[in-house]
Amino acid sequence: MPKYKVFSGLGGGFGGARDNEEIYEFDNENEAIDYAYELAKEEYESYAGLHGLRDIKDIMDEDGVDEEEAEEIFCEERENWLDYYVEEVKEE
After folding, report:
1. Which of 1, 15, 45, 81 could form a disulfide bond with 25, CB atoms 3.0-4.6 angstroms apart?
2. pTM reported for the whole predicted model
3. Nearest to 43 by CA among 51, 21, 63, 61
Protein backbone atom coordinates (compact mmCIF):
# COMPACT_ATOMS: atom_id res chain seq x y z
CA MET A 1 0.00 0.00 0.00
CA PRO A 2 1.30 3.45 -0.83
CA LYS A 3 2.16 5.76 2.07
CA TYR A 4 1.36 9.46 2.22
CA LYS A 5 2.00 12.54 4.30
CA VAL A 6 -1.24 14.44 4.70
CA PHE A 7 -1.44 18.23 4.80
CA SER A 8 -4.63 20.07 5.73
CA GLY A 9 -5.84 23.34 7.13
CA LEU A 10 -7.45 26.62 6.21
CA GLY A 11 -6.16 29.27 3.85
CA GLY A 12 -6.01 32.99 4.38
CA GLY A 13 -4.91 34.17 7.79
CA PHE A 14 -5.20 30.64 9.17
CA GLY A 15 -1.85 29.64 7.69
CA GLY A 16 -2.81 27.13 5.01
CA ALA A 17 -2.28 23.40 4.95
CA ARG A 18 0.02 21.98 7.62
CA ASP A 19 1.74 18.63 7.93
CA ASN A 20 -0.21 16.29 10.21
CA GLU A 21 3.17 14.77 11.11
CA GLU A 22 2.09 11.20 10.50
CA ILE A 23 2.49 8.85 7.59
CA TYR A 24 -0.67 7.05 6.51
CA GLU A 25 -1.27 4.07 4.26
CA PHE A 26 -4.04 4.30 1.68
CA ASP A 27 -5.07 2.12 -1.24
CA ASN A 28 -4.45 5.03 -3.60
CA GLU A 29 -3.85 8.77 -3.84
CA ASN A 30 -7.57 9.56 -4.13
CA GLU A 31 -8.23 8.00 -0.74
CA ALA A 32 -5.40 10.04 0.73
CA ILE A 33 -6.78 13.25 -0.77
CA ASP A 34 -10.27 12.43 0.52
CA TYR A 35 -8.82 12.01 4.01
CA ALA A 36 -6.96 15.33 3.80
CA TYR A 37 -10.18 16.98 2.63
CA GLU A 38 -12.12 15.56 5.58
CA LEU A 39 -9.47 16.82 8.02
CA ALA A 40 -9.64 20.31 6.48
CA LYS A 41 -13.46 20.29 6.73
CA GLU A 42 -13.24 19.29 10.40
CA GLU A 43 -10.86 22.16 11.07
CA TYR A 44 -13.16 24.65 9.35
CA GLU A 45 -16.13 23.40 11.30
CA SER A 46 -14.20 23.77 14.56
CA TYR A 47 -13.85 27.49 13.77
CA ALA A 48 -17.37 28.04 12.39
CA GLY A 49 -18.96 30.93 14.22
CA LEU A 50 -15.53 32.34 15.16
CA HIS A 51 -12.90 34.52 13.52
CA GLY A 52 -15.25 35.65 10.75
CA LEU A 53 -16.20 32.14 9.63
CA ARG A 54 -19.98 31.96 9.64
CA ASP A 55 -21.89 28.99 10.98
CA ILE A 56 -25.33 27.99 9.76
CA LYS A 57 -27.13 30.11 12.36
CA ASP A 58 -25.07 33.17 11.40
CA ILE A 59 -25.96 32.66 7.75
CA MET A 60 -29.66 32.26 8.54
CA ASP A 61 -29.65 35.45 10.62
CA GLU A 62 -27.48 37.56 8.30
CA ASP A 63 -28.85 36.38 4.95
CA GLY A 64 -32.46 35.81 5.97
CA VAL A 65 -32.58 32.29 4.54
CA ASP A 66 -33.97 29.00 5.80
CA GLU A 67 -31.80 26.23 7.24
CA GLU A 68 -31.56 24.25 3.99
CA GLU A 69 -30.32 27.25 2.01
CA ALA A 70 -28.01 28.25 4.88
CA GLU A 71 -26.42 24.77 4.75
CA GLU A 72 -25.76 25.19 1.02
CA ILE A 73 -24.17 28.61 1.61
CA PHE A 74 -22.15 27.22 4.51
CA CYS A 75 -20.73 24.45 2.29
CA GLU A 76 -19.84 26.95 -0.46
CA GLU A 77 -18.11 29.27 1.99
CA ARG A 78 -16.26 26.36 3.60
CA GLU A 79 -14.92 25.18 0.23
CA ASN A 80 -13.31 28.59 -0.31
CA TRP A 81 -11.25 28.25 2.88
CA LEU A 82 -10.04 24.65 2.68
CA ASP A 83 -6.40 23.97 1.90
CA TYR A 84 -5.20 20.37 1.64
CA TYR A 85 -2.91 18.07 -0.31
CA VAL A 86 -0.89 14.87 0.07
CA GLU A 87 2.64 13.80 -0.74
CA GLU A 88 3.52 10.20 -1.44
CA VAL A 89 6.33 8.86 0.73
CA LYS A 90 8.70 6.75 -1.34
CA GLU A 91 10.36 3.91 0.48
CA GLU A 92 14.08 3.69 -0.08
Report:
1. 1
2. 0.90
3. 51
